[in-house]
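S., here's the first fold you wanted:
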Amino acid sequence: MIETLSAVQDFATLAAAQIPMVDLPDSEPIAPPGLADIWNRVVGVGKWIALGIAVLGLFIIGGKMAYDSRRGETSEEVGSLIKLVLAVSLISGGVAVIGFIIG
């Protein structure tokens, strides 16, 4: 069985090496006329709304953490805080990727 898989892998490697490579021109991404400004505005507004919600979430988590620290229970809030930091990272990273694509 292993010999058969090895032979198939060797055949696939040789077949892929025979495919000619075509150099395609690398063009810059260009938004359709009139769409770039609208798109940038929508992405910008979405980013600020999402980050605003994240800041409100940070306040809520901080308040819960302060309230629960009197009882000695803060483990749930630490998990929420980690999720919030990951969410902010995803929001910022998504905006950066969209900005790179749009140019």
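And the second, which I think is the more interesting of the pair:
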Amino acid sequence: MTLPLPESFALTLRGYDREQVDDRLAELHEELRLLTLDRDAAHSQAELLADRLTQARAEITALRDQLDRFCRAPADPAAVGAKVSRLLALARSEADDLVLTAQRRAAALRAEAEGTIRRTQAQLRAIDAVLAEAESALEEGAMPQVAA
């Protein structure tokens, strides 16, 4: 920044007007003092911001390390927050409901299959009886009467 200086000082019998020069020097000293204060404040603020940046970087590093640990470690309900614990409990509950529904469906399918097996076995026994009767009749030489 350039300092505004007067074009020239008024000439007097023995050089410049001493009062005018003293006034201008006082103005320049005050401006220099204010600029120094501004510079010092800016320097302090820059140091403060640099410290905050260092802290933020350290916090980011710590959070990344923590995230890495969470991603590598299995979910332990005691180690996670309340919200995550609730989500895990809800997921377990839904999984339990799915397992229960699957078990009920499997039991129903098993019962249906067993009923089908019993009916098929009964039909096979009836067919075996008819075949045995037909074989017996063939051995005796007579054909049995089959109901239509």
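Why I say that: DSSP finds two helices and two strands in the chain. The beta strands are 11-12, 15-16.

Talk tomorrow,
H.
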